Alliinase C-terminal domain-containing protein
Amino acid sequence: MAKLAVPPLFSLRHFLVLSLALNVSLILRTAYYESGEGSKGFCLKKKMMVDVDSDVIDKSRLAISSSTSSLVNSTRSAGRERVINLDHGDPTMYERFWREMGDKTTITIPGWQSLSYLSDVSNICWFLEPEFAREVVRLHKVVGNAVTEGRHIVVGTGSSQLILAALYALSSPDAAEPISVVSAAPYYSSYPSMADYQKSGLYKWAGDAETFDKEGPYIELVTSPNNPDGYRRQAMVNRSQGLLIHDLAYYWPQYTPISSPSDHDLTLFTVSKSTGHAGTRIGWALVKDEEVVKKMTKFIELNTIGVSRDSQFRASKVLKAVSDSCEQENSQDEESFFKYSYKIMAQRWKQLRAVVDAGDMFSLPQFSPAFCIFFGHETEPQPGFIWLKCEGDIEDCESFLRGHKIITRSGKHFGASPKYVRISMLDTDGTFLQLIDRLSAIQERE
Ligand SMILES: Cc1ncc(COP(=O)(O)O)c(C=O)c1O
C-alpha cells in the first residue's frame, strides 16, 4: 500500500489545532454514544443502543469544561466553515451495523461464476436470481410489510430503473397521446425528470395529482411514506382509468409503523433505503399482472440486458442477514437490524425536534403514532428526510441555509413552496451532529 505523504509544513501549531479538533470530536462522539447506562464501544449488544434522554448537543456542551470552552467555540466555528451537503438521501448511517456484522454479509464470487447473462430461464423475469427472490419473500414475511403471494418479482438496477420499467409497461404504444403521469405534491423530486427526460411518446409528466383533472387514463405514483414529507399516503385521483405505481421505498419499521402488509398491483422496494445498500443498486417490484411483468422484463432487457447477478448475490446475503437478525433477536443477545436502525432514527428525530422547538425560525411536520405489527407496539413515524419549513419572512429556505453552509433541496423541486427544504436524515453521525449544531447556532443567533 502506498504510504501517506506527510505535508512538509506540518508545524506545531497545525498539530495543536488538529489535536484539539480530534479531542472535541471525541467528546462529541462519546457524549452521543455513551449517554446511556452501560454503553461502551460501538457493538450492537442489546444494552448498547439505549435511548438518549436528553439532547446530544446539550450533553456535549456539558461535557466540555468552561476553561476550554473558548477554544472549543473557536474550533466549533472552524467546523462550521465546512459545507455539509444533505441534498441527497445517501443512506450511510447504517455503516456501523454492517461493519459489526463482519463476515455474515461478506461474499466471495469466484472468477468462473455468473458468466452467463441468464439467471433462471424458467422465470418470466429471466435475470432474477432465485436466491434473491427467496430472500425478498422471506423478508416481507418477517417484516409483514407486503403480500407476496400471487405476485411476480421483477428485479431492477435500483427502484429507479423499475419506475421507468413500470411507466413503460403501464403505457400503451397505440394510445393517441402520451399517458399522463402524476403524483401528489410534495412529490419525490426525480419523478418529473424521470418521466420527461427522454421526451417519450408513451408517457408525460402531468404534475400534482391533487389538481389533475384531465379525463382519460393516467398513471399515479403513490409514495408511502412520502419522500419528502414522511406522511403515509393513498392514491389521490381515484378515477376508473387510473393505473397505480406504489413506491414503498420507505415502508420499513425504522421509518414508519407497519400497519398491515401492502397489497397493491405494482409495488416497488429497494435495498437503498431498507438496508442502506444504495451502492449495490438493487430494487424489486411485486407485480400481479403477468402482462405487466413481461413488459417490465422487456424494458430491462432492452435497457441493460438484465440486472447484475453479482449485485443480486450481495443483496440476497444482506436481506438474509436482516431476516436472520430479526428471527434470532430473542434467542441471542443481539439487536435486529430494524431495532438498531429504529433507535438511531428515534434519537435523531428527538434531537432534531428539541433544536427546532427551541426557537421559532423553523417548523417540522407532526406525526401521530400508530400500532406497528413488526414491533408489536405503537411507534412514531420518523422519516428519512426532514421536511423543514422556514418560518417568518424567509421566503427561500434553501438559499438561507446555503448561507449557513448547509446544502439542502428546495421545496420547489418537489412541487411545493421554496419556504420548504428537504434535508437528508440518513447521513453519518458526524454530519448529522454538525447539522444539529448549526441549526441550533442559527436559532441562537437570529
Ligand atoms: C421514493 C423513492 N423512490 C425511489 C428511489 C430510488 O431508489 P434506488 O436507489 O433504488 O434507485 C428513491 C431514492 O431516493 C426514493 O426516495
